[in-house]
Amino acid sequence: MSLYDTGTVSINSGSNTITGTGTNWVSIAGVKEGDLFTVDGAVFYQIYLINSNEEMLAKTIPDGLPYAGGNLSGVKYAIIRHFTDSTNANIASAIMELQQKWHIRENEMTDWFFSAEITYPITSLTGVINEIITPFGMNSFSDAAQAGLAAANDIEGRMQTAEGSLTTLESIVDTKIATSQGLIDDATTNAGIVLGYKNDVEGWHTTVGNQYTQIGTWYGQIDTWQDNVSDELALTVTAKDAAEAAQEAAELAEANAVEITSGTAQDSQKLGGVNANQFFRIGLLPTTAQVTNLDTELQVLTDAVAINTAKVSSPVSPAEKLAYDNLLLDTSIKFWSFII
Predict the structure, then answer these.
(1) Which residues span the domain enclosing 14?
(2) Tally of CB atoms within 10 A around 141
(3) pLDDT digit string, tens, across residues 239-282
(4) Looking at the domain assignment, is residue 332 inside a domain?
(5) C-alpha to C-alpha distance for 4 and 258, rounded to whole angstroms
(6) pTM of whole model > 0.90?
(7) Where are the beta strands (DSSP E) in 90-141?
(8) In angstroms, rounded to a whole number, what is the distance separating the alpha carbons of residues 323 and 307?
(9) What share of the chain is helix, strand, coil (3-state, %, to 5)?
(10) 180 within a domain of the structure (yes/no)
């Protein structure tokens, strides 16, 4: 009696058919009817028909029922060959072998349970060794998972802090933007004010230029008035000289008139036969009242000339200039009407 476990098998629940892959049950294993078949080492099925290297039929012992476990595909298995040819000693030896395997498995399971490694090798009943994760490994994974969870929580906390910082930063940026906008508005307003000042200064500059032009015009007028005053002053002096000469002539005429009035016929003949009364009557000689009036007019004219001569060096208003011109014109008319 020996074990054979080459290849893998597939079997469906409720079926007696076992399908093998790479099993070679006929050509190599020499499997016979009556041999035992198992997939877990706990439940055995008796083979009752072999169809090929990769298909055979089995049933439970002693009920003769089909496979009742879950559907399996590509799993390991074991066949106890030549079971019916074995003696009782062989059977006992096979049972002992199975017990030893169970003891080995039990020891491995104990070592696996207390192992400080992540995984521990476990040998199956068919001799296959598999690395199985240990409780320590599970705890390590749990610790790692908890550490990962803590790290995730920490990351989440940091993200929340970052979000808060971002919100604060956004608020600060918004405030700065609002402040900058206010400064821009103030700068725009101030620029408008400065532009207004510039326009005012330009206006003042224009006004000052106009005033300078007006002052220049006034200076020209003053120069013209000064020339006119000088000319009129010269005329006035001339008129004054003529008036004084006329006054002397009048005085002389008055003296002659007295002589003519009290004189002889010979004196009368000196005047061409015309007496003084005739002279005064025809207006050839001025009367005393006319001479006195002429003196008064000459004094007024002289005062006006003196006053306006003093004003030539300082600006005069158009009203003052007009009053002076009218006075000078009126006095001149009176004088020359007397002389003529």
Answers:
(1) 2-85
(2) 13
(3) 677 667 767 876 776 676 555 455 444 444 444 444 444 444 44
(4) yes
(5) 198
(6) no
(7) 119-123, 129-133
(8) 12
(9) 65, 15, 20
(10) no
End residue of a domain, out of 50, 85, 120: 85
Residue 81's CATH number: 2.40.30
Residues forming a β-bridge with 36? 46, 80
Alpha-carbon distances of 2 from 28, 59, 87, 99, 315, rounded to whole Å: 13, 20, 13, 15, 151
Residue 73 lies in a domain: yes
CA separation, residue 277 to residues 82, 232, 252, 307 (Å):
206, 37, 15, 41
End residue of a domain, out of 48, 63, 85: 85
Rounded CA gap, 165 and 160, in Å? 8
Length of the chain (residues): 340
147, two tokens:
């550490």
Number of domains in the chain: 2
Has residue 334 been placed in a domain?
yes
How far apart are the C-alpha atoms of 240 and 299, rounded to whole Å?
Answer: 9
62-75 as b/e: b if 16+ CB within 10 A: eeeebbeeeebeee
User: What's the Cα-to-Cα distance from 295 to each of 202, 239, 305, 336, rounded to whole Å?
Assistant: 59, 12, 15, 13
pLDDT at 38 over 50: yes
Residue 83 tokens read as 């079971």
User: Are 90 and 1 within 8 A, CB to CB?
Assistant: yes
